[in-house]
Design a protein that fits this description.
Layout (H helix, E strand, L loop, with lengths): L3 H6 L5 H4 L5 E7 L2 E2 L7 E3 L26 E3 L3 E7 L6 E9 L3 E2 L8 E10 L7 E10 L6 E10 L3 E4 L9 E10 L2 E8 L4 E7 L9 E7 L2 E2 L2 E2 L4 E2 L2 E10 L11 E4 L4 E7 L2 E6 L3
Parallel strand pairs: 4-20
Antiparallel strand pairs: 1-2, 1-14, 3-11, 5-15, 5-20, 6-12, 6-19, 7-18, 8-9, 8-15, 9-10, 10-11, 12-13, 13-14, 16-17, 19-22, 21-22
The chain binds 2-acetamido-2-deoxy-beta-D-glucopyranose (4 copies).
One 2-acetamido-2-deoxy-beta-D-glucopyranose binds next to strand 12 and strand 13.
GO molecular function, one term: glutamic-type endopeptidase activity
Protein name: Concanavalin A-like lectin/glucanase domain-containing protein
Organism: Triangularia verruculosa
């Protein structure tokens, strides 16, 4: 989320000096019927807001089978990151997942947050990252978890889609279609409720469109890492990126990032990957 590049680029990058006003439009449908624009609401992302804490089906641990991808550690990314040369750019990226619950991790400061997202760039291309996903947050020692939908074109700020509340276990589907290095549509679909929002951004920071990401992230809070709660095992399903030519980019051959002692990720097959909280 918002603070990721501060880590990737070190302390030289002052994010706020890069933040510009993005130009974007939104539209949406609910059960096939257009949602009046004024009912689709965004707010600058912050820790706090939204609600829900419903039980969620567990994924059998035995499904974590293969381990053939290269692995790498990160302070804040836990997931699969694949690459394509800029001679064959990513056109769009896609994934489904179920909104994971999270519980507070003893010894970590508040707020605690685990953000699940898919996006383009931010790994080998560090000056921009287009991403959208969900986040589970615990603001204080009351341990009440909150869930939000959000999108961000880093280094611009993140936006919470406040008009789309999340519940644990809801299926979300995210498709980000780029129409150039600086324009894209983000489709955030609430499968469980048949509600979708489409955000069209016409002037974003320049992407290279070479990194495909399916990640659970420990976000930054200000200049420090937020506490990282324990979270329900999260499957990225139907995870693929469409490229300008040739086969879709999937999970096989991706680098599996882990956050030491906190989160591991692994591939299942070319279109399914999992991130899970440690210790299991
Ligand atoms: C703790 O967080 C919960 C959920 O975010 C909030 O409702 C409550 O007001 C907070 N309490 C304090 C003391 O900040
Ligand atoms: C879908 O929308 C419904 C109704 O607004 C809400 O209750 C639910 O939590 C939402 N789920 C997701 C994943 O957006
Ligand atoms: C994204 O592109 C796919 C494939 O071209 C298309 O099916 C889908 O409708 C597009 N979504 C958006 C939000 O533009
Ligand atoms: C976590 O990932 C590391 C590196 O991929 C691996 O060596 C370790 O066995 C994993 N631990 C668990 C509990 O899955």
């Amino acid at each position: 989320m918002r603070w990721i590049l501060a880590l990737l680029l070190g302390s030289v990058l002052l994010l706020s000096s890069f933040a510009t006003a993005l130009q974007y439009e939104v539209s949406g449908t609910r059960k096939g019927v257009p949602i009046p624009k004024e009912q689709i609401k965004f707010a600058p992302y912050q820790f706090g807001r939204s609600k829900n804490n419903n039980p969620r089906a567990e994924v059998p641990k035995s499904m974590r089978i293969k381990r053939g991808n290269p692995t790498s550690s990160s302070a804040n990314w836990c997931g699969a990151v694949n690459h394509t040369p800029t001679s064959n750019k990513i056109k769009s990226i896609h994934a489904f997942w179920q909104v994971p619950g999270c519980t507070k991790r003893t010894g970590h400061t508040y707020p605690q947050g685990a953000a699940v997202w898919t996006g383009i760039d931010g790994n080998t291309w560090t000056s921009a990252l287009l991403q959208s996903g969900t986040v589970c947050k615990i603001d204080n020692s009351t341990a009440v978890a909150r869930h939000e939908a959000w999108w961000q074109w880093v280094p611009d700020v993140a936006y919470t889609i406040t008009s789309m509340p999340l519940a644990i276990g809801d299926w979300v589907e995210i498709t980000i279609n780029t129409t150039s290095d600086t324009s894209a549509t983000i489709k955030f679909d609430n499968i469980s409720q048949d509600e979708q929002n489409i955000i069209t951004v016409v002037s974003g920071p320049t992407l290279a469109r070479k990194d495909a990401d399916w990640v659970v992230e420990r976000p930054y809070f200000g200049s420090s890492l937020a506490g990282f709660p324990k979270f329900d095992t999260t499957w990225f399903e139907d995870a693929y990126a469409v490229r300008q030519t040739g086969a879709n980019l999937g999970i096989l051959g991706a680098t599996q990032y882990h956050i030491p002692s906190l989160c591991n990720s692994t591939e299942y097959d070319n279109f399914n990957a999992v991130s899970y909280s440690l210790p299991v």
